[in-house]
Amino acid sequence: MFAKRFLSATLSFSLFSVALGLAAPSLARAEGQLRIAEQFGIVYLLLNVAQDQKLIEKHGKSEGVDIKVEWIKLSGGSAVNDALLSGAIDIAGAGVGPLLTIWDRTRGRQNVRGVASLGNLPYYLVSNNPNVRTIADLSDKDRIALPAVGVSVQSRVLQLASAKQWGDAQYNRLDKISVAVPHPDAAAAIINGGTEISAHFGNPPFQEQELAGNPKAHIVLNSYQVLGGPSSATVLYATEKFRKDNPKTYKAFVGALDEAAKFVAANPEKAADTYIRTSNAKIDRDLLLKIIKNPEVQFKITPQNTYPLAEFMYRVGAIKNKPTSVKDYFFDDAHIAGGS
User: Fold this and answer.
1) Sign (positive or negative) of CA dihedral 240, 243, 244, 246
2) Among 6, 157, 178, residue whose Cα is nearest residue 95
3) Which residues, at least 6 apart from 269, have a Cβ–Cβ distance to it below 8 Å?
4) First to last CA, the chain
5) What is the pTM of this model?
6) Which residues of 161-190 are buried (b: 16+ CB within 10 A; e: fewer)?
């Protein structure tokens, strides 16, 4: 019941996003208006810093435009993609999986492409079932919570791991025991136990809270291991029309992200306080600092190691168009140079 209840809630939110977008005017938005969708977790720290310090507004003034920013919280790549296509948001924040899905679906039409990465952070598949040590140990009795089944970056990484374990023909083998649950609720299920949720493919800080909060919780899978090294898991993307019609707003947004990334790298303690303040997170500050200072974590806006997932998704037919490099599904901006 737990998983079904939150699956229903997530789908309802997705439909609400579509309705919201369809109710909005279809005319192009004026330069200086920006609606950004973010989800849950420390992976959105650059956006938290930009919001807290009003960096987008600051860079907008440098471009000669007053930018009004609206922040919208959603859960799951499906809801985010629905909101972007319906016109309810201008900038989408989600995993590489949802970006590749919507890039493929809109190619030749809205032409959605990536704007920037939010950094490299390892994602863990955590289980509180002592019998589950590898994905091969998962059974029909287990339920894996993740943001969106078959769409989210967690789901796609799990599919890639499944393909490596059982072959490409069974890449979606674990989809049938996966359920869409927002990260905070999934983390509570892993920590407290007593629900049908026995595993959660999450992101920081929820995965670290699970490991600290339940002695039975342990790491089953690390996204870096599956992808062959540090990789950008969460990214920002937009339609070609928005980028073309709002060049000053777009430039200000990218500039704000770059400044936020430099701030986090230079001021991890202040960045931690920003996250706690802006997200109203109930998290141990020392644990949060440990995540931010983790040598495996890098907050930067240039995408890294995203192509292995793109190649896999094309290989198994999850996307129809074959990307030849990161520049196919990211806009050709200066900060993308050297990306992968």
Assistant:
1) positive
2) 157
3) 289
4) 41
5) 0.85
6) bbbeeeeeeebbbbeebbbbbbbbbbbbbb
